[in-house]
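User: My collaborator sent over this chain with a note saying "see what the structure looks like." That's all I know about it. Can you take a look?
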Amino acid sequence: MQESSPKKQKGRGYRLRQASARDRLDTGVRSVCSKLGVAAVVVAAAIVIHSLYVIQIKNGATYRQYAAQQQLMDTTIKATRGEIYDASGITLASTSVVWTIWADPSYSSILYTSQTAADGTVTKTLDPAMCAEVSRELTLRLLSGDGESLDAVDTSSDAYQQQYQTVYDALSKTDAAYVTLATKVNNAVKLSIEQYVTAFNKAHKKATDTSRKGRISVSSEKSFQRNYPYGAFAAAVLGFTDADGVGTYGLEKSYQSTLAGVDGRTITQRNAVGNAIADANATTFAAKDGSNLVLSLDVNVQEIVERYLNEAIAANTVENRGTAIVMNVKTGAILAMASKPDFDPNDPLDYSANLDYLNELVRAEPELYGIYKKDADGNEIKDENGNRILDEEADYSGYFRDIQWKNKAITELYYPGSVFKVITSAMGIDSGLANINTTFTCAGAYGVAKETYHCAGHKAHGTITLAEALRQSCNIYYIQLGQRIGSQTFYDYFDAFGFTSRTGVDLPSETNFMQYYKADQLGEVQLASSAFGQAMAITPLQMCTAVAAAVNGGYLVTPHVVDKITDSNGNVIEEVGANVRRQVISASTSDAIRQIMEYEVGNGTGGGKYAYVSGYRIGGKSGTSEQLNMDRRTDGDYKKVASFAAVLPADDPEIIVYVMLDDPNNAKTDYSSLLAAPVVGNIISEVAPYLGIATDGEDRSGTTVTVPNLVGTEWSSAQVQLNIKGLKHQLAESESSQTAAAVTYQYPHAGAKVAYGTTVYLYTDTYEGQHTEVPDVTGKSADFARQMLSAAGLNCVVEGDANGTVQAQSEDAGVSVQRGSIITITCG
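Assistant: Without extra context I'll predict from the sequence alone. Here is the result:
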């Protein structure tokens, strides 16, 4: 029987064959690999977990900060710097919004053509014609001033050529992403440039028959500019800010935190390309604008002081600058402070206006500013006499800027000379060792140790009182007074008057280097020289505060320039009042000092007569000191400092007027009574009426004065003569320089008999004078008529009832007469 073949049957299983050795090996490998894979996963997981731990927990704060920086945009909101005002609210320093115009040449595709090489390198080729066109349009707008007056721009001027080249060169840098085209651009010009760029890009959105497709990328950045509207005016007091708007000198520096305010911030989200996303949840911290300073400085007083100080420096060829101060003796409020020559705080790095003066100064004072020639090894080269040789080619620009920036009133020491005799007098009287009538004898020479002292001109004053000694500025009297006072008492008063420390004025850079002898260092010679101001060096402001203490009842006050601080709405935040440091001398001593200082000036008869202004009670003292720390002059004598301090009214002083001229070179005289006193007198002649300083009360309305001959006299000296006689003065403006100019014409003429108080008009460039039209004053009150005539440049004499109205005038209305003519009005 045949066996049937085996057949597959549904649902029937098969026996698996036995695994081979190779299969068993593969299984083992797979097992190991599986375990290794699991281990790797575990390790990787551990690494990830550790990384997450480090990122989220250990360093979470840091990475959250990184994330915030990437996701958030933090924009600074600049605070507006506070303004500076004078005492009457006139702006002396302000801040305006300006713009920096910049471009992205790499994105300004219209300016160049591009070619891509096989290796992917892109080559850009500038299109000179298109660059020139864009540069021209931008330059016209930058120089227009208002963005509109393009036709008024002179394209042939140097200013245009320079600005055009700057723009063209910047736009030519086709690979640069940021180039500056102009800074400090006003808003009108900025808007004009934006409109031009928008219109240009719209016109070149598509290629045309005459132009390629492309764009220009020009943008603007907001910034602030500090403005000083009066230029080189009170510059040493105001100071200036640097390019970042930070106060660098003067009040701008000392009140930096007050003026600067606090910047604000806006925090918002940013997109992938870094631009802000409009987000209602943006957080803004508003900026806190800076506070304003209201000064005790008065622009009118400051202008008068600067005018006469500038004139004195020029007329007397003052080598090492000069300084002047007007200060309230009771409160320390400074009404004016000037150091000349100075600078324009709008451009403080520019010294070109004073270059000739500065060149002369640094070479005249080699002890302070000399730069000497050196050989290749750095050794100084000397001449055949062993003297160092000045390097004429050296760069003095650093010295130039430093000199004109310095506030001479507080940064430099000087020997006060005879002005200090006021303080020595106060020491003697207050200590009870002397009084106004105390006498010493001056024989013309006096020996102390191995030194022999003389009075000026080797004069012998004989036996004189303290008051006479001050008036005649007798050195020998004060040496003997100093000996009576003694070293310890002298030093104690010297310290009490504030000469051993800073005054505390609210200005930066007041020197802390004091040059004086302590009590145990005041030997016979040192004490003798110190008694008449020729041994201890001080600052001009220290001298002012000491004299103020000597006459104000004995109180040493802290000088200050800032009167109050206000917020942006004008609300007063802080007021600065008088700060009395201490009482130095008694009220009775102060009264005696006032008397002898007034005796010094007298009624235009004393040693300080040229500081006298008729109608005012003025006390004063001059000082001609020798610069012992400087090289001598070519004539063998010491260089000099001429100074004068005046107080008024002498019976109850309100202000001190102080002037110091450092190294005057007047060929006629060295004496401060002839150099500094006249400057003080001219300042007083204008400042006292303006401030309403009380007069001496004497009625001089009926006094007739003879006009002196002033032609040929330097105009400021001519004014001094008028001050003493009780005549007012007015210097007519001139188109030519009036520096140290002589009077060429005056009206009223010399010899004219005029009423006390008549104004004499002085001219320096004409021989005919100026004319003015007589106003119609009929029917006006006498006072108002007088004001109208004065405003027209005319003098007025009132006849009849001074309380009535004008019935007639000596010259018809509309008639042209000389300025200074006397118009008589009849009132009833």
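A starting point for your reply to your collaborator: The CA atoms of residues 775 and 791 lie 10 Å apart.
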